[in-house]
Amino acid sequence: MLLRTTVFAAIMAGTASLALAQGTGSEGYFEVYNNTGGNVVVGFYTNDGSGWSDNWLQDAVDPGQSATARFTADTGPCDQVFQVGWLGTDGGEVLDEPISIDICAASNIYLDDNEIYYD
């Protein structure tokens, strides 16, 4: 069974505007944006070196929507790996390649059709 890391409290799906105040991992939260043309995000997983977390998404994130990720721990490793799960044509989950991230410096994670990046 996958272990939940202590880095995130939750990711809550919902619409968000780029006009909202931007946070950084060092401030305790960041935003995950689904900028795809038609792909639905059904999973978001993290790994701080101790194993993959459970899925942090409570709901799917449709194109044009975003989810807020909040930390639970005051300290923890900044170097993380995250992996996105997409809704497959058969209704199952298709996992993307894991991506390294400095979670403390991230304000936003952008999930585009052919690219995943952060700032």
TrEMBL record:
Question: In terms of domain of life, where is this protein from?
Answer: Bacteria
What span is annotated as the signal peptide, if there is one?
A: 1-21
* The entry's keywords: Signal
What name has this protein been given in UniProt?
A: Uncharacterized protein
